[in-house]
Every structure is written in structure tokens, then in C-alpha cells.
Amino acid sequence: MIESKPDSIGINDRLNSIVLFNESGDKWISRRRIVGGSKTNILNLSAVRYQWAIDYYRRMSASAYNPLQFSLSRENREYTSLSEIERKSYDRILSSLVVMESIVVSNIQFVYPYITSPEVSACFSTMQLQQTVHCDTYSQIINSAVPEAQREGVFEGWRTNEQMRLRNRDINGMLLKFVKEPTMGNFLKNTLVTTLVLGVVIPTEIALIYALARHSKVVATANAIKYVHRDLTLHSDFLQTLIKALSEENATLNTPEVRKDLGQTVRDVVNIETDLIHNISESMIPGLSDVTISRFSQSLSNKIAKNIGMETLFPGITMSPIPWFDSFGEIRK
Q: Distance between CA atoms of 125 and 108, rounded to whole angstroms?
């Protein structure tokens, strides 16, 4: 029997979700697809089409950590020593981080049923677990640093900060397009927005925590968040590779019109987040001006755009304006 090659899926074609067990699923590995395929739902990870996916799965599994391992007992004293504006920024950052990670966890629940490659499914399920662990990490930090009477205000900060509430609504709306209309094009855009949340939005907010720690403030918080940072980098890299693979599998996703639309999505997310970061920091985080923070988000976006085969979206931003960010985030044992 000759295996036929899978046809490209149209950008507006509606995707079907998988069933619990599909005994008529395609057995040919060469016909396997990231989405739009027909799989049995058996997780046989010894026979894979996408070796890059199984490699990411192994790396994700190896990076597991327990939020209870961090020593945060002194963080309450560190918190009370912050200036008023620094405490406000710290609270807003943690509130925003909890929301963004929670949205990613929920989004994966809706995306996962459409993944038709077991090795890619393994990556998404591992990502979801690790994003949940990140939320637990933030909870441990808040419960250790923030006085009990103020903790609910931090967890619920997204309700009272109008700029954050609008950012959340905009990001959520972008992701919901696929939930409401699960087409190939919307899957691609959902993946891109998730990549930007993990690779631009959250790292930009983490940079504010690192900036405080570089001045010997909330150091334990920064040390815990370094583990989150490590995961986020890996997850974002995985999704960027996924986007490239999707475009290679489906010619309808690799057109000037699609790239232009995706480019606008990147700009929209960066502009939305930049407005919020200025609100969070009030230009009072040591060493990070509004201009520096804006250019940092743009530099991260340019890097992602280059990695997925798009043109530079923010010309003139060739280097990171926060050169210490990656090295400061390294985990030293």
C-alpha cells in the first residue's frame, strides 16, 4: 500500500476536535499532522513524526520544580522595606502575572482537543501543568511577602486596575477567536498570541522584578521567578517552532496577507502591554525608564518575528536595551 501525502488545510477550513479514542485513526506516521489529522489518541512517543516536539517534551519534563522549594520567609520584611510606589508596582506585577498564566492554562484546555499529533499533545499537556505550577509559585510569593490583610487586593488587582482589565480583555478576546471559530487561521493566530504572552508580555513584567532585585530588593521573589522564566523561554521557543511547522505543512498560512495580519497582531499585543507596563511601573522602577521598557518589549517581539520567518516589525531595535536580563535570569546552583 502506498502512503499518500496529507493535503494542505485551507486557512478558513474548520478544524474538528479529537474524540476520546479513535480506533480508525490514521496509522501512517508520515500522514500525521499537528492539527487537522486523524489520530487514535494513543500516546506512543516512540514513533513520532515531529522529532523537535519530542525533544521539547523531554526538555520540559526535565525542568520540573516544586514551588515549595523556595525560601521566602524573609520576603515580608523585604516587601515592607520597599517604597510605596515600589510596593504598588510589585503588587501589580504579581497580579498581572497570575492573570496571564491563568489565561494560558485555560486557553490550552480549548486548544488541546484539536491537536492531532501525540508528541505535540505531550508538549501542550506538560506546558499546562507547568503554567499551573507558575501560578502556584506566584501564590507562594504573595502569601509570603504581602501582609495577610492585603493579599486579596493583590490577587484581585486586575479588577481594580482599569488598564490591566482592558489588557486582559484584549488578550482574552484574541484567544477566544479560535474558541468561537476553530479554523486553521485562528489556530495559527491563537498560537502566536500565546507565544507573545509567554515570550514578550510576561518577560517584560519579570524584568521589573529583576530590576528591583538588582538593587538588592525582593531578591527571593526574583530567585523563584527565575524558574518560571526558564520555563517560559522553553515554552515560547516550542510554540515558535510549532508556528514554523504549521506554515510548512499548510501553504495557505504562508502568504504575504497572512504575514501582514500576524505582524499587526504582534504590534497590537506589544502596544497593549507597553501601555500597561507604564501604568504598573509609573516610571519609578530603578534603571528602567518607559522608553527602555517599550524597546525591550519590541526587541523580544522582533526576535520572535525573525524566528518564525517574519520581517522586522520594530525597525531600529537591533539589540536588547536590557542587556543584563537573560544573564540575571540564569539559575545558578
A: 8
Do 94 and 153 meet the contact criterion of CB atoms below 8 Å apart? no
Long-range contacts of 108-112 (CB under 8 A, 24+ apart): 110/178, 110/179, 111/178, 111/187, 111/190, 111/191
Contact of 177 with 190, CB cutoff 8 Å:
yes
Distance CA 158, CA 143 (A): 17
The amino acid at residue 218 is: V
Whether the per-residue pLDDT at 9 is higher than 70: the answer is: yes
Tell which residue, 134, 124, 111, 120, has the closest CA to residue 64: 134
Average pLDDT, the chain: 93
Characterize 96-119 residue by residue with b for buried, 16 or more Cβ atoms within 10 angstroms of its Cβ, and e for exposed.
bbbbbbbbbbebbebbbebbbbbb
Give the model confidence (pLDDT) of 185-197 as tens digits: 999 999 999 999 9
Q: For residues 298 and 322, what is the distance between their CA atoms, to the nearest angstrom?
A: 12
Point out which residues pair with 183 in neighbouring strands. 14
Query: Which residue carries 539559575 as its cell?
Result: 331
Report the candidate in 93, 106, 321 with the shortest Cα–Cα distance to residue 228: 93
pLDDT class for 6, splitting at 50, 70, 90?
low
Q: Where are the domains of the chain?
A: 56-328
Question: Residue 244's closest CA among 257, 235, 253?
Answer: 253
* CA 70/CA 97 separation, integer angstroms: 18
Rounded to two decimals, the pTM is 0.95
Domain 56-328, architecture per CATH: Orthogonal Bundle (1.10)
Q: Chain centroid to CA 179: how far?
A: 18
